């Protein structure tokens, strides 16, 4: 499943390519025909990600997308329509399109391939959404109810408390509200579930998936089965900062790389993760054989030697 960094890249790309321009919206597959009709021929004003959700604002209507396990958006168009060709679940790479234009000068899209839930079109190209878990048009109150259920997203943090300059910049704010870290800490403190399970709960922290939870717990030397409420304040703060740093790297690089090349084994310099999907091989930090087990239907990877 795409983790939060992919949704933030998607929001940025939609912001670049569509926001402030009139777009055409259709549902070639038909399942989103009514919603597409509400969004069509309007000017999107803002795109944002919150955890694993994308929201595109068009005044009183908000387009909500959750990619789920299989969703992806592909982008095709002319030289003014540049960006990642696909964001979301991996897809076959397509050749650049042969650009043809209609009488208005708009790029003519290729016929839809497969089940395209929503097609977005502007002058310079088009984007196809396939396989989302959620694709809906929300009213403002509905949007507010959705985001009220989401935990803090480390990528949306206004003031990263770990960064002294940022803390100073917000010192003059008369009502800064609870920081993401404060909310994260408060929600963990109420739960007895294992911290590894808590990190996957989008109402506790939004945007973390299976890879970031395994890698952040490893790097913070935290036992995945420790009850969430038993983490020290220092561990909670360090974990929050770690997740933020990892997600920011993911946005910058477009892939999840938690193991820097200089830390990777010289036998496998391309390795990207410390523990994720490396069960059965020795821990790069302590040599213990890495383990995997099922937790709430998802595989949890960790080092039984140096975590906890
Ligand atoms: Zn270890």
User: Ions, cofactors, ligands: which are bound?
Assistant: zinc ion
Indicate the overall shape: globular
CATH architectural grouping of the largest domain: Orthogonal Bundle
The N- to C-terminal Cα distance equals 27 Å
Placed side by side, the strands forming the largest sheet appear as: 1-7-8-5-6
Q: Please work out how many helical segments DSSP would assign.
A: 8
Protein model, in words:
- By secondary structure, the protein is of the alpha+beta class.
- The chain has 2 domains: 4-148, N-terminal domain of MutM-like DNA repair proteins (Alpha-Beta Barrel); 154-302, Helicase, Ruva Protein, domain 3 (Orthogonal Bundle).
- The protein is 26% helix and 19% strand.
- The protein is built from 8 helices and 11 strands.
- The protein has a 5-stranded antiparallel sheet with strand order 1-7-8-5-6. A 4-stranded antiparallel sheet has the order 2-3-4-9, with helices on both faces. Strands 10-11 form a two-stranded antiparallel sheet.
- Helix 1 crosses helix 8 (233-253) and helix 7 (210-219) packs across helix 8 (233-253).
- It is globular, with a radius of gyration of 21 Å.
- Residues 283, 285-286, 288, 303, 305-306 line the site of zinc ion (ZN).
Q: How are the SSEs ordered, and which strands pair?
A:
Elements: H1 4-17, E1 24-26, H2 33-39, E2 46-50, E3 53-58, E4 61-66, E5 72-77, E6 86-88, E7 116-122, E8 125-130, E9 134-138, H3 140-148, H4 164-169, H5 180-189, H6 195-198, H7 210-219, H8 233-253, E10 291-295, E11 298-302
Antiparallel strand pairs: 1-7, 2-3, 3-4, 4-9, 5-6, 5-8, 7-8, 10-11
Bound molecules: zinc ion (ZN).
């Amino acid at each position: 499943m795409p983790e939060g960094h992919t949704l933030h890249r998607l929001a940025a790309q939609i912001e670049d390519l569509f926001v402030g321009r009139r777009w055409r919206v259709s549902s070639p597959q038909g399942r989103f025909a009514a919603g597409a009709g509400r969004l069509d021929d309007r000017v999107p004003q803002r795109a944002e990600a919150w955890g694993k959700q994308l929201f595109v604002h068009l005044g009183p209507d908000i387009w909500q997308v959750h990619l789920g396990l299989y969703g992806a958006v592909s982008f095709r168009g002319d030289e003014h329509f540049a960006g990642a060709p696909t964001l979301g679940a991996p897809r076959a790479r397509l050749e650049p399109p042969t650009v043809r234009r209609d009488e208005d000068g708009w790029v003519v899209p290729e016929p839809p391939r497969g089940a395209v839930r929503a097609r977005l079109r502007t002058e310079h190209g088009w984007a196809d959404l396939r396989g989302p878990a959620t694709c809906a048009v929300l009213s403002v109150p509905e949007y507010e109810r959705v985001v009220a259920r989401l935990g803090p997203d480390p990528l949306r943090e206004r003031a990263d408390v770990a960064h002294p300059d940022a803390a100073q910049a917000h010192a003059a704010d008369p009502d800064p509200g609870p920081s993401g870290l404060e909310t994260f800490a408060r929600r963990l403190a109420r739960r007895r579930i294992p911290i590894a399970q808590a990190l996957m709960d989008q109402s506790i922290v939004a945007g973390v998936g299976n890879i970031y939870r395994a890698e952040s717990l490893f790097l913070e030397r935290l036992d995945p089965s420790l009850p969430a409420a038993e983490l020290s304040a220092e561990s909670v703060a360090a974990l929050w900062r770690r997740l933020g740093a990892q997600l920011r790297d993911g946005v910058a690089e477009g892939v999840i790389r938690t193991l820097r090349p200089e830390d990777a084994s010289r036998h496998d310099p391309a390795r990207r993760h410390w523990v994720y999907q490396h069960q059965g091989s020795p821990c790069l930090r302590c040599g213990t054989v890495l383990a995997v087990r099922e937790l709430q239907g998802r595989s949890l990877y960790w080092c039984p030697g140096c975590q906890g």
